[in-house]
């Protein structure tokens, strides 16, 4: 699908960022070639600061040098800028709204609880509260999954690619919170493995053990002492 319109796609990302990973999965699903530009968030460069002066974070999609910030905005942009490629969002307005809702839910609940799990002191009431909220959030996602093979239904879709990067963090969340996602939410764990068999996902995510090592780095550097 290479062509003039596709030229100049670059993604400012970080290997472990679930938000950058969802963009990588989306680009792969749409068959769009791009140049990955790994960023050092401990020493942010001029390109990132110019491209995203408000939040100063990844991911940022550069299309012909023009930046598009925030991962869910990037996904919608890809659908609108490249309508000839497979659509990420469903065509039905209600289904689109439903998919956006659950993608937002993962961002403000799952990721936020996960951050508190590694940031708060082990065994503290704040961490125990984060654990309770994380387990509840995962169970809510599992209830939404139900007996479907994918969150989007019978086929892998927008909501799956938006949420599956968090599956690589399940191991770390469980170890920090002293629970097993496989035991607490077996269908959700199986969904993560099922999505991981897809080429676009397999190429974009990293082994849970490697992600857990990164969580340890975050905890040592930024966690409560």
UniProtKB/TrEMBL annotation:
Biological processes per GO annotation: glutathione metabolic process
Gene3D superfamilies: 1.20.1050.10, Glutaredoxin (3.40.30.10)
Domain of life: Eukaryota
Alphabetized GO MF terms: glutathione transferase activity
Keywords noted in UniProt: Cytoplasm, Transferase
GO cellular component assignments: cytoplasm; cytosol
SUPFAM superfamilies found in the cross-reference section: GST C-terminal domain-like, Thioredoxin-like
Keyword DNA-binding: no
Domain GST N-terminal: 7-86
Pfam families: GST_C_2, GST_N_3
All copies of domain GST C-terminal, residue ranges: 92-214
UniProt KW Transferase keyword: yes
Enzyme Commission number, as recorded: 2.5.1.18
InterPro entries attached to this UniProt entry: Glutathione-S-Trfase_C-like, Glutathione-S-Trfase_C_sf, Glutathione_S-Trfase, Glutathione_S-Trfase_N, GST_C_Tau, Omega/Tau-like, Thioredoxin-like_sf
Primary location: cytoplasm
Enzyme class, broadest EC rank: transferase
Xref: PANTHER family: GLUTATHIONE S-TRANSFERASE (PTHR11260:SF617), GLUTATHIONE S-TRANSFERASE, GST, SUPERFAMILY, GST DOMAIN CONTAINING (PTHR11260)
Function according to Swiss-Prot or TrEMBL: Is involved in the conjugation of reduced glutathione to a wide number of exogenous and endogenous hydrophobic electrophiles.
Family: Belongs to the GST superfamily.
Protein name according to UniProt: Glutathione S-transferase
Species per Swiss-Prot/TrEMBL record: Setaria italica (Foxtail millet)
């Amino acid at each position: 699908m290479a062509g003039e319109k596709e030229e100049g796609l670059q993604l400012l990302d970080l290997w472990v960022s679930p938000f950058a990973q969802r963009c990588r999965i989306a680009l792969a699903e749409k068959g769009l070639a791009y140049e990955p530009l790994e960023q050092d968030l401990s020493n942010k460069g001029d390109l990132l600061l110019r491209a995203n002066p408000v939040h100063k974070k990844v991911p940022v999609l550069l299309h012909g040098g023009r930046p598009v910030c925030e991962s869910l905005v990037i996904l919608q942009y890809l659908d609108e800028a490249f309508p000839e490629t497979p659509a990420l969002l469903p065509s039905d307005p209600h289904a689109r709204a439903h998919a956006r809702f659950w993608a937002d839910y993962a961002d403000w609940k799952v990721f936020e609880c996960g951050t508190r799990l590694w940031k708060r002191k082990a065994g503290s009431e704040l961490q125990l509260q984060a654990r309770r909220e994380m387990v509840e959030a995962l169970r809510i996602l599992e209830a939404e999954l139900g007996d479907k093979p994918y969150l989007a239904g019978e086929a892998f879709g927008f909501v799956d690619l938006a949420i599956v990067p968090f599956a690589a963090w399940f191991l770390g969340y469980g170890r920090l919170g002293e629970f097993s996602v496989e035991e607490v939410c077996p269908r959700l764990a199986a969904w993560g493995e099922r999505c991981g068999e897809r080429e676009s996902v397999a190429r974009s995510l990293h082994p849970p053990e490697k992600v857990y090592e990164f969580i340890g780095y975050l905890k040592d550097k930024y966690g409560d002492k």
